[in-house]
Automatic annotation (TrEMBL):
Residues 458-467 have a biased composition (Pro residues). The lineage of its organism: Eukaryota, Fungi, Dikarya, Ascomycota, Pezizomycotina. InterPro entries: Arrestin-like_C, Arrestin-like_N, Bul1-like, Bul1_C. It comes from Aspergillus caelatus. Residues 36-185 form the Arrestin-like N-terminal domain. Residues 442-467 are annotated as: Disordered. It holds the Pfam family Bul1_C. This is Arrestin-like N-terminal domain-containing protein. PANTHER family: BYPASS OF STOP CODON PROTEIN 5-RELATED. Residues 387-429 form the Bul1 C-terminal domain.
Length: 467
């Protein structure tokens, strides 16, 4: 190679290095969800990509995608093992862009502003290949294929808070973004490939929940218990007073209209009590009931094969499982006016009907000869903290968010006015966002002409889903 050719190559390389990259800006249209850059199921993410250059720039490809990504980091206690991290891109919707047309030429000219509109529709479900690991039940597979909400995205800010969610661990994130990648052609005579231009715009996704687990949320594991059996006594070496059975009713899912719609949102839980006395022992004197909302986030770099639980072995040893939890008081109720009702044993083999027709599950027979027992029923209001913003319950391959109501019932045992005992029940709670659209994915296919006219007024682009 002659010195002149070497000098020419060096000058071309210097020009390519000093040549400014194209300036890419992503502008989002205003949405109607009530929070900036926030979208829900079937919501349209619309906007414009604006590209400007300072010199002639040949393009090879333009990619506009909508992506969803989960990131997890597990800290190991031993410094020799280091941290374990995992990243999963569970959603990628692509909008095709064809070069060579009038709006996007193959060579961008300086002084021109190229504007590319885009539209993405937030899907209800993920592609089947997003969850390609083993699961212990088909119900969990369905949960993993439902779109998870944004969780602790560091690139989103809500005032002074880095996250919308009230509870943040900082070790797991679920983020959504509109991404634009420009691939430039290499300059003639240059051996170095041109670096692509990558621009992203983060958005918040709060999908409506449609997945309801079978038979009363059994997926939360053995750490959830809605029934307790407790033997009461006067103390060590004293005869037992009897058995106290406490059972809580199922709490229906709570639907919120928006992240800030906690005002006035409430439900109730019924406590059915039964006391099987020994001899002629009197039932305990009920004192107080209190409730706390427990918020738990489970995460792992290894996909969950079952619903997460505090009894999981991997969570206990901290090897490839972790969890973050917090509790908030939501209710305190005095029960001094609650009275016990005495009954005689009916002898029904399928259970005993308590007060107000409420049935307690199978139990052991009373120990006294008269076969009498006592029942009481309490309805406790459950009101969400009005100043809290909470994301919906969800289960994804790497991250899950669960809620439960921890009820504590305190009482005095008979003949010991100063001795206070208590029993605790943990009831699962599901939070979800109510749909602001009266249609479902099946309704779109079966809607009449008037509905289809509205839906097709701005059709979504032909994008493909890849993982």
């Amino acid at each position: 190679m002659t010195p002149q050719s070497r000098l020419r190559g060096a000058l071309d390389l210097l020009k390519s290095i000093r040549r400014p990259s194209p300036l890419v800006t992503i502008e989002l249209d205003k949405n109607t969800y009530g929070l900036e850059n926030t979208y829900t199921t079937f919501g349209r993410i619309q906007g414009m990509v604006i590209i400007t250059v300072d010199s002639e720039t040949p393009l090879e490809n333009i990619s506009i995608t909508f992506e969803g990504t989960a990131r997890v980091s597990i800290e190991r206690e031993s410094w020799t093992l280091g941290n374990t991290e995992a990243t999963q891109t569970f959603l990628q919707l692509k909008q095709p862009v064809t070069l060579g047309i009038e709006s996007v030429p193959k060579i961008l000219q300086p002084g021109c502003s190229y504007r590319l509109p885009f539209t993405f529709v937030v899907p209800q479900y993920l592609p089947c290949q997003s969850c390609n690991h083993n699961v212990n039940c088909s119900d969990l597979k369905q949960a993993h294929l439902q779109l998870p909400p944004t969780l602790d995205d560091p690139k989103l800010e809500n005032g002074k808070r880095p996250t919308l969610d009230y509870v943040s661990s900082g070790k797991c994130h679920i983020s959504y973004r509109v991404r634009v990648v420009l691939s430039k052609d290499s300059m003639p005579g240059s051996r170095r490939p041109s670096r692509p231009v990558d621009c992203v715009k983060s958005v918040r996704v709060l999908p409506t929940s449609v997945h309801t687990p079978r038979s009363g949320l059994p997926m939360l594991g053995s750490d959830i218990y809605t029934r307790t059996e407790q033997n009461l006594s006067l103390g060590f070496a004293h005869p037992g007073l009897g058995e106290l059975i406490t059972e809580a009713s199922h709490i229906p899912p709570i639907s919120l209209q928006s992240p800030f719609d906690n005002h006035g949102v409430h439900t109730a839980v019924r406590l059915n009590l039964r006391f099987n006395p020994v001899m002629d022992a009197a039932p305990p004197q009920l004192k107080k009931a209190s409730a706390k909302l427990q918020v738990a986030t489970f995460y792992s770099p290894v996909p969950w094969e079952d619903y997460p639980s505090w009894t999981d072995r991997g969570l206990a040893n901290g090897w490839d499982r972790a969890a973050f939890t917090d509790t908030f008081p939501i209710m305190a109720f005095s029960m001094g006016s609650v009275q016990w009702v005495k009954h005689q044993e009916i002898g029904d083999e399928h259970g005993i009907q308590g007060q107000d027709g409420q049935s307690l599950s199978d139990h052991t027979a009373p120990c006294n000869d008269s076969r009498s027992y006592y029942t009481a029923s309490i309805v406790l209001p459950i009101v969400l903290p009005p100043r809290m913003t909470l994301i919906p319950t969800f289960h994804s391959c790497l991250i899950s968010r669960t809620y439960s109501v921890n009820l504590r019932l305190s009482f005095h045992t008979p003949k010991t006015a100063l001795q206070t005992a208590s029993t605790t029940i943990k009831v699962p709670l599901m939070l979800q966002y109510a749909s602001n659209n009266h249609h479902t994915s099946l309704d779109y296919e079966e809607s009449d002409a008037s509905d289809s006219t509205v839906m097709n007024s701005l059709p979504p682009p032909k994008y493909t889903a890849t993982v």
